[in-house]
Design goal:
binds nicotinamide-adenine-dinucleotide; alpha/beta; seven-stranded parallel sheet
């Protein structure tokens, strides 16, 4: 480090890096693919719904994940960053969750990311690499009516730590994004505008939903070469939702202002 560093030298760039983003057809994954591209990386997306630059894959299937990784490496010669982002929630209380619902949520939110690690690590051994997993606030505390989602998102924190411990010496890092309520299709479906949506917004300190881009920026930050000491960690991007009792703070501050 010296006094004459350029802006690019502070964090390093992603030119020439190859990035795989799952769940890239919408929401946070689409924003991540856009932002990684804007940073100079070559991006391959994967989703149930194929599209421009998005390969079709059900990431809960280990064979499809293995094939996906092989296609990326065959086409681009390397794989530097994996953003394991695909996710789905089937709400319900524990006693009402069916075997199918359980397998769907665990398969997409949890198992898929293990398959990605298993398939991608052999290609990262020479030059290192980064895994970014879109966990959630549900990875550090439980949301009601989402038992399997909570379990799966907690597991991603464990997976990031395991990757860090097992491969740190080979320059492979892993970060779990602890993301707060973000305005995507998932939120529109599960928390439509109304009292439920209002309670979600009230859970944040900033008093609004995040944008997919605000989450994607954290994924890019985690993947930058300059984030080289960031691994096995949760990166919290939640508008302050897990920082404190925001609803209580709001009522107390309102009362205080009134007196
Ligand atoms: N939106 C939020 O408030 C929020 C909060 C915390 C965490 N997250 C997480 O962010 C991630 C992205 O979700 P989003 O909010 O952008 O929702 P989204 O529904 O817009 O995106 C999810 C994407 O995953 C894809 N997907 C689902 N099952 C798949 C499968 N089997 N194989 C491949 N792709 C599959 C979907 O087709 C979709 O494009 C998810 O892991 C979600 O759990 C979202």
């Amino acid at each position: 480090m010296n006094d004459t560093m350029t802006r690019d030298e502070v964090f390093g760039g992603l030119d020439g890096r190859v990035v795989l983003v799952t769940g890239a057809a919408s929401g946070i994954g689409a924003a991540s693919a856009r932002l990684f591209r804007a940073m100079g990386a070559t991006v391959v997306g994967a989703d149930l719904t194929p599209g421009d630059g998005i390969l079709p894959a059900d990431v809960s299937d280990p064979e499809q994940v293995a094939e996906l990784v092989e296609i990326v490496v065959a086409r681009h010669g390397r794989l530097d960053v994996v953003h394991g982002n695909a996710g789905v929630n089937v709400p319900g209380r524990p006693h009402s969750i069916t075997d199918d619902d359980y397998r769907t949520v665990m398969g997409v939110c949890c198992d898929a990311n293990f398959y990605l690690v298993r398939s991608a690590v052999p290609h990262m051994r020479r030059d290192g690499g980064v895994f970014v997993f879109t966990s959630s606030m549900c990875g550090v505390a439980a949301t009601p009516r989402s038992p399997v989602y909570n379990m799966a998102k907690h597991a991603l924190v464990g997976l990031a730590r395991s990757v860090a411990v097992d491969y740190g010496a080979q320059g492979i890092r892993a970060v779990a994004l602890v993301t707060g309520p973000t305005h995507t299709g998932m939120v529109d479906e599960l928390w439509p505008p109304g009292p439920l949506r209002d309670s979600l917004i009230a859970s944040t300190a900033v008093g609004r939903l995040g944008t997919p881009e605000e989450i994607a920026r954290a994924a890019v930050f985690a993947a930058l070469p300059g984030s080289s000491f960031l691994t096995g960690a949760c990166l919290t991007v939640d508008g302050g939702a897990t920082a404190g009792w925001n609803e209580m703070a709001r009522s107390m501050l309102t009362l205080k202002a009134a007196t």
